[in-house]
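Protocol step 4 of 6: structure prediction from sequence.
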Amino acid sequence: MKKIIYLIFICILTFSCEDVIELKVPTSEPKLVIEGSINWLKGTLGNEQQIKLTLSAPYFNNVVPPANGAQITITDADNNTFQFIEDGETGIYKNNSFIPTIGGKYNLTISYNEEIYTASETLKSVAEIEYIEQKNDGGFSGEETEIKAYFTDPADDENYYFFEFISDIPVIPTLEVYKDEFVNGNPIFGFYTEEDLATGDELIIRNYGISKRFYDFMFILLQQNSEDGGGPFETQPATVRGNCINQSNPDNFPFGYFRLSEVDEFIYVVE
């Protein structure tokens, strides 16, 4: 009798049906997403720049739609106007005559779908990455590779930094922001850790000079996206607005940010 009951139970598990559950995710009208990052890599002219425009899409969409047909200009303090032209229908708008000036103020204007978007920001300088320290027994498990990218913070200014770590192994790039509030004028470092790094792997380390407003913007975004987040004292998820304003219809605000940074890049081979 027990064998019969057992066989019936196995059959139920084997041939049971799975119900398809359709999640109803709230939808809204697409918003303009502005990836307005002007980056001046040390040692280059900085004349070739681009701005990417996309549209927000439902959560389960696999494709991010480009925002085509926009008119984009950036104007500097000397009244130089730089026009960005779309590359085909990619949503990527390019300019090859940009003039970067440390401390210079720039104004962005975007005309899209009969609405005008504007933003203003200053091009921030950045300190050079001087050397790298590596530790092979880091992390909670003692098996992670830790990388410290050292640089010296200028003593006379209030500085903010945005670090990007890109490895040649299939992992998501790591982003971090730092400020010099307690280390003004001293050597400080950007920190990266990864368990799967191995000897010979290549790591691209970029340090961007940023404004306080962009630091605050990224700090909140990184807190919300952190795998370790969710504690009682963490920043609660919310719509994080950048510095871009819809002058035609303020309620239809865009996502994204207009940022100008000097960038230092260090390519490190893991030992």
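Step 5 (inspection) to follow. Residues 119 and 244 are 5 Å apart (CA to CA).
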